[in-house]
TrEMBL record:
The lineage of its organism: Bacteria, Bacillati, Bacillota, Bacilli, Bacillales. InterPro entries: Acyl_CoA_acyltransferase, GNAT_dom, N-acetyltransferase_domain. SUPFAM superfamilies: Acyl-CoA N-acyltransferases (Nat). Pfam families: Acetyltransf_1. GO terms for molecular function: acyltransferase activity. Gene3D superfamilies: 3.40.630.30. This is GNAT family N-acetyltransferase.
Amino acid sequence: MQIIEAIESDYKFITGRDRHINEQLVESKIKNGEIYILVEENIRIGWMRFGYFWDNLPFMNMLWLDEEYRGQGFGKKVVEHWEEKMKNKGFNQVMTSTQANEGAQHFYRKLGYKDVGCLLLENEPLEILMAKKL
């Protein structure tokens, strides 16, 4: 598997699948190098995008793999790749979150993420905030 920074031509791939981000923000995230594309045998199989919590703490906003590629270690590889990039930029901690009704919380805990708080929005499941020291 390859992990590459998204480029302009990835815009349709991302916006066609990512329903959790305003399409106008995708362009700026691509320009800022904040979206990685996962490629397996020349096929784009998913992406990971991030931003910065409080504008100074790397925060993984979304990790997505097409259904048929889940459970094969691709997610772990992209998270570790991102963590290494953030460490090389001088960060000593990263964050993410997941809803309490999603299995992703167990995935992140296996990778060393710890629960650090939660957020409860009206008509939404509990959002678990997680952090990891690098």
